[in-house]
Amino acid sequence: MSDWMPEPRTPPEAAPAPPAPSFEAAPPAPLGVTRTPTGHATVDARLERLADADHLPADGHTEVYEDVHRGLRDELTALDARPAPAPTPSDNNRS
C-alpha cells in the first residue's frame, strides 16, 4: 500500500458573470464623418447642417437628412433656371 494521498481538489475560480444586457438606448454619438467644403457657400451651409444629426437619436436623423436633401435639390434646381434676359435699350431712349 501507498501512503500517498491525493491533495483535495480546489474548485476552479468562477469566471465573472457577464454584465446583464441593457435595453436602454445608447446616447447619441458623432459619426465622425468629415465634411469637405465645396467652395459654394450655400452648399457648404447645407452640408454643415448634417452635423446636427450627430446630437440626435437615430429617429431624429431623418428630419435632418430630408432637410439637407431638400436644400441641395433646391440649389441644383436653381442652377438649371435660365438667367433673366439682359436688359435691352428701348427705342425711346435712342438719340
Task: Give your account of this protein's structure.
The protein has 95 residues and is mostly helical. It has helices at residues 41-48, 58-80. Helices cover 33% and strands 0% of the residues. It starts with 40 loop residues before the first helix and ends in a 15-residue tail after the last helix.
Regarding quaternary structure, what we see is single chain
Based on secondary structure, the structural category is mainly alpha
Output the helix-strand order.
Answer: HH
End-to-end distance: 139 Å
Overall shape: it is rod-shaped
Number of strands: 0
Average pLDDT metric: 83
Amount of helix: 25-40%
- In terms of DSSP E residues, the strand content is under 5%
Number of helices: 2
pLDDT below 50 for ≥5 consecutive residues: which ranges? none
Rg to the nearest angstrom?
A: 34 Å
Biggest sheet details: none
